[in-house]
Structures are given as structure tokens and as C-alpha cells.
Amino acid sequence: LDEIGDLSLNSQAKILRVLQDRMVERVGGRKEIPVDARLIAATNKNLEGLIARGEFREDLYYRLNVVRLETPPLREIASDIPAIAMALLERAAREMQRAAPTIEPEALAVLSAYRWPGNVRQLENEMRRAVALARNGRVEVGDLSAEVRGINVAPAAPVAKRERETLTSEVERLERERIREALVRCRYNQLRTAKELGLSRQGLLNKLKRYGIAAKPEEEQRS
Predict the structure, then answer these.
(1) Range of the domain at 138
(2) Among 39, 64, 89, residue at a domain's last position
(3) Of 143, 203, 167, whose CA–CA distance to 83 is shortest?
(4) pLDDT above 80 for 52
(5) Do 202 and 143 fall into the same domain?
(6) Pair 181, 83 in one domain
(7) Does the chain have fewer CB atoms within 10 Å around its N or its C terminus?
(8) Pairing of strands 102-103, 32-34
(9) For the chain, how many structural domains are there in total?
(10) What is the CATH number of the domain that holds 215?
């Protein structure tokens, strides 16, 4: 259940009853049906604060709060943003039936510096925009929204050479890992691997050569 903190008190009571009695009734039905399920709930609200204000049931809170996982917002894990952005970019490209572009180091620097008040959903939308606007297979700073560009990086400020090299090596490492994983999933079938990665077969071969990745599993073992 997403956004569990937005449930009305009436709906909260119904969820609590299901968790306690493990029984449900179909809409319009009269017979109780036993259920055996585990519930995963998510929220971005402070449930303890809602309880204090009488907006969330305390008994339901303790029923739900068995194993608690806290996911930090993007602004607290800036070092992970490049990997998350690339994963979202590739997914958006598949959904839009386009070849996945690469993200230029300068654009990655902007993405990593931004605070992301809308968290992952905002980054996901930004990557969809990037896929739509990218030219020549590259996402550049100019392809990002004005909101993301304007808050963090001055347009005329060059990226330091050391920072550029660090980001470039990180992008290459992530791309190398993606290619290796895709090869294994596709059992080293180059056509299937290229299709999954949104590349032409020749484009895949060029990247295999560039990164020194074996085209066959036995070559991987020898290397």
C-alpha cells in the first residue's frame, strides 16, 4: 500500500481488521473469506506526528511497524544519483522505444548537485525529458530542465578537469557493468544484448572492444 499515511480513519479501521482477523468480505458479499498475506506499506509522512494529531490509528501503526526500512531522500545520497539516473534513463528509453543515450559528465554533475525536492519521481521525469530531448545519443546540460540547471550550476562555470575525469571514469565503470550483466542475461547473444541495451550490433561490438569485454564466456575465463 503506497501512501498509507493518506488513508482516512475509516479505511485505516478496515485495514486493521484484515490484519487482526485475517478475513475479508467481497463488496456486496456476506461471507467472510480467509486471507494469508503480508502487507508492505510505504509513506513519506511522519506517522508518529499523525498519531499525535489523531490522524492515524496508533494500533494500526504498531501492526504495520514490524520490519521498518527507511529510504533516504536523493539529497542525502548524492553519490548514488549517477547510477540511479542511468538506470531510470535506460528504463525510460525502453518505454519510449528509443536507444538509451549516455549522460555527459557535466550533466551528471548538475544532477548530483540538485536537491531533488520531488525525490525519485522528479528524477524519473527528468530522465524521460532527457531521452526525448537528447541529440546524437548524449544527454548534455542543456537537455536538463531549467529548474535543475538554474539552481545548482552557473551556465558559464566550467567543470574542473579532476571532477570531469572522476565522473567520466564512474560513467564508464557503470556502462561496463551494464554491458557485462546484459551479456550474461542474454547468454552472450550479441543481437539480444544489443537490443536490450538499445544499441546496434556494431555499437555493442565497439563498446566491447573499448572496454576490453570478452564477446564469449570462454574468452572471459581466459582473460
Answers:
(1) 79-222
(2) 64
(3) 167
(4) yes
(5) yes
(6) yes
(7) C
(8) unpaired
(9) 2
(10) 1.10.8.60
d(C-alpha 47, C-alpha 5), whole Å: 7
Amino acid at 57: R
Q: Are residues 135 and 187 in the same domain?
A: yes
The reported pTM is 0.55
The residues near 78 (Cβ < 8 Å, ≥ 6 apart) are 112, 113
Could you give the C-alpha distances from 70 to 43, 45, 118, in angstroms and in order? 10, 12, 17
Same domain for 160 and 101, yes or no, is yes
Calpha distance 21→16 (Å, rounded): 8
String of b and e for 170-183 (b: at least 16 CB within 10 Å)? Answer: bbeebbbebbeebb
- Cell numbers that stand for 140 in this block: 548534455
Instruction: Say if residue 9 is in the same domain as residue 93.
Output: no
d(CA 118, CA 69): 20
Q: How far apart are CA 109 and CA 165, in angstroms?
A: 12
* pLDDT for the residue 58: 96
Q: In degrees rounded to 5, what are phi and psi of residue 200?
A: -80, 165
Among residues 190, 115, 102, which one has the least CA distance to residue 150? Answer: 115
Mean residue pLDDT of the chain comes to: 85
Q: Do 108 and 205 reside in the same domain of the chain? A: yes
- Per-residue pLDDT at 156: 40
Contacts of 193 (CB under 8 A, 6+ apart): 179, 182, 183, 185, 186, 204
Question: Within 13 Å, how many C-alpha atoms sit on residue 9's CB side?
Answer: 8
The reply to whether 192 falls in a domain is: yes
